[in-house]
Records
---
Amino acid sequence: MTLVGIQTPAPVPTADAAVAAAAGRPEPQRRRRRVQPTTWAGLAFAAPLLVYLVVFYAYPLYENVSMSLHRYTRATYVTGEAPFVGLDIYREVIGSSQFWTIVWQTTVFVVASLLFQYSFGLGLAVFFRRAFPLSAVLRGLFLVPWLLPIIVSATTWQWMMDADSGIINRFLGVFGIDPVWWLSADHSLTAVIIANIWLGIPFNLVILYSGLQNIPTEMYEAASLDGAGAWRQFWSITFPLLKPVSAITLLLGFVYTLKVVDIIWIMTQGTGKSQTLATWAYAMAFGKGTSATIKYSEASAVGSILLLVALVMGIVYLVVQRRQED
Amino acid sequence: MDRVQRSWWKTTIGVVLTAIMLFPVYWMVNVSLTSRGSIRDGDLWPKDFTLDHYRVVLGDQLPYLGTSLLVGLGTVALTLVVSAPAGYALSRLLKPGRRVLSFVLIVAQMIPAVVMALGFYQIYSDLGILDTVPGLILADSTIAVPFAVMLFSAFMAGIPRELLQAAQIDGASFWRTFRSVVLPVSRNSAVTVALFAFLWAWSDFLFASTLNRGGGNLRPITMGIYDYIGSQNQEWGPMMATAVLASVPTAILLVVAQRYVAAGVTAGAVKD
């Protein structure tokens, strides 16, 4: 959830302006000499970031992958012994009885979250498209779930979904519906999906709303002169023209949803059906377990699988974005 | 006339939708103000009003709030120091490396935090800096740095060329240009970066719960709340009161600093 702010600046095409600026307009005979100093200065200014990326990204990732290729146990931290086992741990993880169940649960979690976040976000974006009294304030308030610390949201949902005294069961009781044990066994997946949809709506609203602002109003005016109603306008103008923005929104949503740990862990600790690949990795390494249940290498293997998916998605994102720029 | 009426209808619907969306937040405040015996009654407003939970929390949680503040400020400082020069380099100076570096930053944002936590855990336990505040600051900054670099470089690319040229004609070095022209002009971006870096560090649960589990009082407020969940008898009143206090930065961001957030975000969209 936290990284959600990125895409606002990210897709901005800055290259032309920057290239022109870097080239500058020096006197002819000095032009050749000036290219080099600029690049050198660029490297110097980027140096802290480059060092940072190596030390705080590359190195931890290397450690993670290395851990998945060696057999780490709790004892490793005492004895320092961790024999190299190649891909054995991947084979064990993928072959284990839980793996495909968890992959399925992860799929349900991601797909259901995305579907509803996107639909609600789009509906709200269309609703807010034209300004009305208080619309800016209300739109601002819609950001709250996005900006709140997840532990705050998660504990609040946990209490609201309490089986005996939770407000949700009380509300359902008004309609004669029996109390639901939201946070246990069969319903835990639904419970975390509901909370995660709530968390994701603001992100979808913001991105889709800014996308809508780029559709010329004249198109809607022309359409309504031709007698097209709101429904028709949505399907003939809004939805098709929003496709590029929708693609980026869903793509980023996919990546962010796949790596969600905190909301699930805090609400259910991954019990019942709410275990996903990310929480599984977390539970194996950091769960409240004994040495029998703590499995660093297996956790790293699952983590590396997630990492691979993230890399692939990064490439897809770049391809989609570049195609949109053309 | 008809138009005015229609827009007020929209406002009414908008208020209702916002109320539904923010109900959990209201519920948190409601529970935090209800005394212990009545919490399970689920009253729609704090009928049995009390401030006791806040009294308890201010006694118990102050060290955690202090740690969170420290971690947040440390993360802001580190993020700014690393990302502002890099944004300048990426937007103005580096031509060949720009695309590669942008790709690296996009992917960096997509890496699951749990993977990073696993790597950091291993490294930190080797170095013996598990359960320390600097360790947590370093880890938390990884959430903000890629975003910060991209925000800075998007903004700095829009600085009028003439401004930088004027500095160079006056004989200013790159460093001097950066310090005296680029940085002052980019103030709004810096505020935006600082706000988000602080908020993300403040909100972080994953790194805190893995790299700083045994830190005692040197743990952030998110762990203070988490302690309530772990305890046998869950105390919902103090827990919700702590949650309300932990939400204060969010509220400040929305009320006081919203124009900076908007400035930073729209700045990226303005081309020169």
---
Amino acid sequence: MGSIEANGKNYETDEEGYLADLNTWDKDVAEVMAKLDDCELTDNHWEVINFLREYYEEYQIAPAVRVLTKAIGKKLGKDKGNSKYLYELFPYGPAKQACKYAGLPKPTGCV
Amino acid sequence: MAMLHLVNKSPYDASSLETASSIMKGDDAMLLIEDGVYAAVRNGKAAASLEGLKVSVLGPDLAARGIGEDKLIDGVTVVDYAGFVDMVEANDKVQSWL
Amino acid sequence: MSEIKKFMYVNRKAPYGTIYAWEALEVILIGAAFEQDVSLAFMDDGVYQLTKGQDTTGIGMKNFSPTYSALGDYEITKIYVDKESLEERGLSLDDLQHLVWEDEDEDWAEKDSIRLVSRTELADVLAEQDVLFNF
């Protein structure tokens, strides 16, 4: 267990830095998590983060990277639904890193 | 001396429902909880074991499993957690068929 | 990549009374990453996993029934449901979620994933698999 601080508020995390409770998530904590990885969140990042939160809301799981890539392609167009684009945004792995910023648990099957 | 029988296993996966119903007598009551609630579905094979018995099911367990109250055997009553406590209180003894 | 094998996951347990159903679902989703030819079968109490309208707020457990709708995204498009198991339990196909997958090659046309089969048909499907997991 660990914790992360954003805007004077404390957020409980697991040992890998994922939020312990996704209901505690807000944009501030996402920004702080990204900053710790030297990543500045742009609109393109937010598009993926928001997509992941909606996906979790609907299916109760964080999608595997292959599933995420395909689904993004369907929703936001082929120029975004490919691993090159997603890895440029999230160099630590789109599913892993973006899920963390989105407050979701680590994707099922991600080691 | 009435006994409350608690059954928490699916009747299609375990023998607890059948055994419990064969043991019940007099004013005994049965409360189906957890996977036990599946026994109360009207057209299910297990419904026959409940014939003539005083049976209730725990509502939250029913809802969790997507079994609508309209699918239940006639005469089966749905109780909430407070109703569960009332039943325990109303009977002299409780037996859990694990 | 070695040749594609036919993987079958046979689900036989009700969803919330034990942890089997959720664990099986996680194994299935993880296994989907290996791009094999995956099928699922639901029989015995396993058919209860697919009932629609599950609401777990009263029992304080995670409702994972929406996750079955994501199986199509994982390219799991063959979900066999044993008709006898349903009938024995007083249920019919109408009591189950409507699960679909989208065919990318046909402009994302929605197609049914669930195939209602008799015990004999299911036996034939199981016989043609390479690897079987039973939960």
---
Amino acid sequence: MTRRQWLAATTFLKAIPGWRYEFPRDHFSHPAFRTEWWYYTGNVADAQGRPFGFELTFFRAALAESVERRNVWSTRDAYMAHLALTDIAGKAFYHSERLNRPGPGLAGVDAARGRIWNGNWESLVQPEAHRLRAVAEKFSFALDLAVAKPPVIHGHGGVSQKGPLAGQASHYISFTRLEAGGEIVLGAERFRVRGSAWMDHEFFSSELDEKLAGWDWFSIQLDNREELMLYRLRQKDGAASPWSAGSYVRADGRIEHLEAAELELEPGRKWKNYPVAWRVRVKRLGIDLLAEPRLDSQELLSKAKLTPSYWEGAMVFRGSHRGLGYLEMTGYDDRVLFTRREGVRK
Amino acid sequence: MSALFARLILRPLWADRGRTMVTLASIALGVAVIFAMDLAGEAAAGSFRSSMETVSGGEDIEILSTGGLPADLLGRLSGLPYPLRYSPRIEDFAIVNEKRTVPLFGVDVFANALELAEAGNRAEPKLTEAGQRGVFTTAGLGRRGESIRLQVNDEAHDFTILGTIDSRQVSGDLVLLDLEDADLVTGRQGKIDRILVTLPETEKAAVDQWAERLRQGMPEGITVRPVGARKEENRKMLAAFRWNLRVLSYIALLVGAFLIYNTISVSVVRRRAEIGIVRAVGGTGRLMVAGFLAEALFFGLAGGLLGLALGRILAEGAVKLVGLTVTALYVSSTAAPVEFAWSAAAVSLGSGVLVSLLAALAPALEAGRIPPTEAMARGRVDTQLQAAAGRQLAYAGALLGLSWALSLLPPWGGKPMGGYVATLALVGAASFTAPSLVAFVGRRMTGWAGVEALLAGRSLAGALRRSSVLVAALATAIAMMTSVGIMVGSFRETMLTWIDRQIRADFYLRPAGEAAMDRHPTISEDVARRIEQIPGVLAVDRFRAYSIRYNGLPVILAAGDVQAQMRYGRTSLQKGDNADAVRGMLAGEAVIVSEPFGEKHGVKVGDRITVPLGQARPSFRVAGIFLDYSSENGYIILDQSVARRYLPADEPSNLAIYADEKADRAALRARIEASYAPRRIALFENRSLRNEAVRIFDQTFAVTYALEAVAIFVAVMGVAGAMLALIIDRRREIGLLRFLGGAAGQVRRMVLFEAGLIGLFSQLLGVLSGALLSLVLIFVINKQSFGWTIEFHLPVLALLSALAFVLLATILAGLYPARMATRLNPIEVMHEE
């Protein structure tokens, strides 16, 4: 029995319709699901207009459904985290990754204290704001993200479907508009910054469909206080999967679900393997945007063979609307975070 | 000038190849020993890595605590807003497949998976392998997929080897496993032994500030310090040991110095005629001095260079011996590879040259003073020496007094400098006594053993310069042998007496495996409880040891059952009141310390000492000092009830079992053994523990024995060479004897008598000065550098047999010269003149 089959045979919960969302409980950990992530991205600038992009991501990956707890080091879930800062004016991109066991408080999710953390990278999730703190060798930041819009649940029936089979899906929640304010320390310089941030939280147990190579995901915050989230699941043959989808969030918080057929995504200019410039159209909504990276080199290059490299960076959008946001492109280096790892070694 | 040097110096040296070789060889050996001991000392006791340092990356700071750090500390640290990387470690030793003991490290496989893969370091496991019950080992211990049995403490565990570690990155074999398994096999119960902290590249210079920052808010029992500190600590701990090794190694060169002196003075005496001629045709006295100093320089340089080559080879063997001592006495370690150190080479070579020049100074000056007219007058100088013998005796007396005064000096910079100089003064005193002794006895040799003995005695007394130097050289070697022999013998005897007094329990239990000063594997507490239930067992004394640091030096902190000790054992204090100590220890306000601890840290009864215990740093009154010969670093002993307060749930490292006298020992032993099976525990009965101690003791002194052997070898070789020279020099005299009717056998006997007499005189002087030297070694050098009280014992049998061996060796050394002497053709020899 391969590890893949074994994992399939376990009884992790599948993301299927019927999940009853309840907050703040569902902002925290769901150990019954195999994989979970909390994704913060944002565009900020200091008073002089010096712009920065930031990313702070927490991952949880269950190694097994249940593990005998023999001592403080026993590990059921591995916790990974990514941290990145884009110094747009300085044309520099800094990123760092870490992997930890929960151990004696090294990493984890503590719903009671509203804390999601990995070492000294943490998010304190409170009803009115998420407080991010992260320290890396070259930079650190402390940003308070005030909740400006209620959380959005993507997909139909509380499920963001990503393949034809039941459970090839995730439960996907977003804070599409968080008002960011705080401090960034880069080298010897300190910047008081303000801006806008986005948070995604997904939990699921499935692997990516075998036909898929990766995805291109956009979070777009338009300056009319409306937001667009969309992703294109990319098949190995290069075509967009029919399971690609999106959500449009009106200024008043109303949500419109977007189907694959409504999304027109055209890759443009390439940087390395990644198409960093795009044209994004949703005709029904009158949206026609040209997306450009605020810096080309925003690849989270994994030096370890353990984890894949991907591109995730601050974007600027112009055209029918103006806006800022983030783009994530995975599967361009033949490895996709978590979901495909077991597939590589048969 | 160079032509003169070639003719006056080099040509005779070549003509006299045998003696030249012997002198060269003795210098070479002396330099070789110094160089080898220095290289070996550096590798095994200087730049060695203690076993716990074998896997270190770029860590900068270490955090540690007696009895381990709570795991929560790691959680707290990792949340601090500092850009630091923390690597928790469980550190222990494991016996692999019931054979070798290797370091065992528990590391965080998860945290390391990313970072080490990033650094291109394949030493660490992959994430996909995490969670499997397996270990990583160096290739020397097995291959991937094989199973491996690890004994940790008193239990064996079977693991699968998941991968091998590139052994180029570590020194020595080791076993690596995830913290989860490491915690289970070592019984740490959530404790960590060390947390290593890595600073960002840009902060490496500020390591002290970072250590200080981390110290803030840390419980006071926890030590935070730069990683280099342990190495520094080891260096400091081993400094005295290395010094003594070094001093011991110089004695071989000292013996060589006498031989140089002998060679050069023979050169001068034998070339009086040539010197006279050179002087007569205008050579200055200064030229003569320069010439003979050049000869000494030649010996020093050529012999020294040979010695460096030889020393490099000897170092490989020596490093093993020194390593054994270091591990037995101080710290589990892996010797660093022996490296050719230019500074050590320069010092050794320099010492060789300097000693040669100094040894040659007197004869060279004498050559410069030879007036042309007296060149032909043989024997004059020796007469002068005889006249001077009285004065030399006075020097000897003065030096003896000086050495006594020096030995009263306190240590200087922690080193017994006074003691070292005192040994030199004693050697000097013995050497200055040699001429008087030879002259006195030689002249009084009567014909009790025939005319040959008479002649031998007279001729030794006649050629006083050379014979007394030979005697001094051999006597120095014998003195060294005797003194070290007496010291080691006394130490051994003292230790045995102490063991007999100390070991009162009937059975001793410790986890199986090689014992070492810094390893304290444990026995499960339930074993102790089961043994207590066995009928016939009166008491089970649990003894738990920890390696801690006191004043920047390693010390063993031990917790025992004071009541059981006092009731059944008979530990008596050297200083302090027994009853008071017991009361104080039970009340938790007092400790007792061992003598070496007291000496090393200047602690006296009544002083207060503060020791790190768990997270606290309590202070105790020193209620007594006890004799102990098992650890040079010293012990601090407290009652187990007190230890438990600070370090709960710790299991004992040793058990001492007191049995009812009426109980059947064999049956009792069987029941004890049954009580712990199948745990890996070694049981020692009273007697076998004693043998074990003696074995470790002898292993510790292996280096000393080896050094002694070299010095004796150099001396005996020197005597052989010098006797040969003596014979060649006395060709005419021997020829005359033969001419006058002396039979070949008589001549042979005479030469052998001379050799034997030299041996005898040397023995006399050597044993006497050796006994004095041993007093300095025992009561000054040992006491000041190690702090042990050793009672003086004369190992009579061992000494007598060693001396008999030396006497035999000197007589044997006379065999070849004797044969040479009988081969001389009397007529030819007479015709030479």
---
Amino acid sequence: MRKIVISSLCALSLGVASFNPAIAAKLSGTECLAPAGAGGGWDFTCRVPAAQMMQKLNLIDGSMKVVNMSGSGGGKAFSHVVTTRNTDEKLIVAASAATATRLAQKVYGDYEADDVRWVGALGMDYGVIVVAKDSAYKTLDDLVNQFKSNPRRAAIVGGSSVGGWDHIKALLIAKEAGIKNLRSINYIPFDNGGKAMLEVISGRAAAFTGDSSEVIGQLKAGKVRVLAVLSDKRIPALGDAKTAKEQGYDVVGGNWRAFYAPAGISDASYNNWVSAVKSVAMSPEWSDLREKNGLAEFTSFGSDFDGFVRNQIANVAAISKELGVTK
Amino acid sequence: MLLHGFSVALSGLNVFLVFIGVFLGTIIGMLPGIGPINAIAILFPIVLQFELTPASALIFFAGIFYGSQYGNSISSILLNVPGTSSAAVTCIDGNPLAKQGRAGSALAMSAVASFSGGVLSIFLLVLFAPLLSKLAIDFGPAEYFVLMVCAFTALTSFSHGSFIKAVFSAILGLAIATVGIDELSFGGMRRFTFGVEELGDGIDFIVVVIGVFAISEVFLFLSDMSSGAVQKVAPLKSVLLSLKELKDSVAGILRSCVTGFLVGVLPGAGATIASFLAYNTEKKMAGDKGNFGKGDLRGVAAPESANNSSAVGSFIPLLVLGVPGSETTAVMLAALITLGVTPGPTMLTDQPDMFWGVAASMFIGNMVLIVLNLPLVKLLAKILLVPRWILMPLIAILSIVGVYVLNGSEFDLLLMLIFGVIGFIMRKTDFPLAPLILGLVLGGLIEVNFRRALTYSYGEFSTFYDSPITIGLWLITLFSLVAPFAIRKLKNRSQ
């Protein structure tokens, strides 16, 4: 099946090489750029679904090199790709909702979504709103009412900076609830989701906004309760936690795991990467690894994914403007 | 259960991993600029390559962790080049000792103190882990803020001569810490970045540490050479440690171990605060009788014991709560997540091998550390016999490589040079370097926690003195400031 996909794509785009499609399609000396240090989401995206899976499924020739380039929340890697690797056909870069958030907020300077090509996504860490096990807030409504009546009494904590993706998720709910002054929501950032969660468990903070993979451990240990999952359907790993939608708040949001490629590569190479990511996303091996890492199923490729990213950037840009994060 | 742990730790593969981890860690740690975090990041792909189980991976990481911490002390003592901010404290007395020909003693003391601190704190880990994990939860932003204030009292210990100079040096450190994007403000305000894109992430403390310590050392050598006043290193003395020296430092090692362990348990406080607090305590305890700052073995023992036990302590939030207690354990946890471990308190039950296996492996690792390193002490000390005109260019090269490996940034190299010049001027004019490191490390933490605490309390300052923990910490702070004077007064009166 995989070979058929690849070869038919090749036949479409690379007529000349079609006499030996399988070989022509496979890239050698490939590289995945993780815009952060070893360990962590972007590094995982490069090491597991890209390097490990693509080699295992024989989608690339030989092994894939993983390079870590941390700096400016992914901005260093983004500008590196645009300025010096723009035509590198063998390069893909790990990306996530944080990438889109920062593009929307102009954290990467003047760079835009157009400056790269969006390849595809293969997993989603859905957002959650969590409270301590014995918290007085039983439903999302309880928390939202508190936000409306006395937001300063209800500090909400998360692992991203002010205006970061965790903050934005909480604000999307506030906005949906009709809260006008989004800056009244008392968000306090911590170094990572784990530390922020301790603030909720200790009772210092009212609620936690983060990703589902961050809370599964604490949930299993009975330390926290999930008020809402920001997904279309309930997530098995979170037990009987209700979605925000079920509770009347139409907010869906998560941290997707994806790749982009340089803008200057040929359509053939781009399609090659798209089909490679697709093959990984559809493989049973990946769905196993994905679940182990607390990621829900989410796939989007090629031009669909490009549209998805643009849509998210527009949404985040709008809410950031309201918040005063960006002008 | 610890027996079960030993059965895990003593499996052939795990013993091998501990050994390799400690060995590689020591070597990597000796290189300037490369501390445990980088060592783990560099060696992480090995874990994936060999598809290690999470328990084995963590055992490997732990070995790298204390191996590289010990390795760091070697370069701190011999070359005055610390690889981490916590090892900067070891330099204060370790390097003068080396220059007096007592490098062997300092290295041996460092090995003994690291070993004792490490092993004792493993007992504390096994006995008190669940209890202490509650401390990690109870420690909120207000408590952290007061702890940092308490750590700042250590400043009084680092002013040989002028207290004003120590304060100035600390303020410079605090100022450097403010550079970069302010994550707590709307829109991420850029502070003191002067339009330079690279300064957005702030200035990495390793760049500063290498600059002010290592590069300034090279500059000092150059200036000595041009004035023809190259100082001779005293000939190596053969005696490693006398029984009396060991006896004198036992109490300090024990105290520092407990301090280091408790500070290590707190997520985010870390080895640097532990080292500074331990050094401060020991210097104050010694009073006028100590030779602290000019080469006192106890000044090596205290930070070495403290930073090793804080390393062990930082595993408690990781293993019991599933929350990283330091940057190093954060990298470890991220790596474990990649291996499919669900972070959180269920790690203890999901991965029963992990807690006891790691605890037992720490015993073995510390053994390996001392067995591997004590015999090497004499050999390592001989590095000082290498002529300085060979050693100095080597330090320069290693520093450049170490800093470049950090972020792959040429800009960091430029910063390193600038800080080298600053360090050179400070040393020539007798400004102490340690307070700068203290200010730099605490600056970010103290500010962020101050603002978090006030956001919680909506501007109410009482949050800083309304819990038993904060009150206790204020009392310790006060005691640490007043006690030395009070003791001196009492002594004078009795004479």
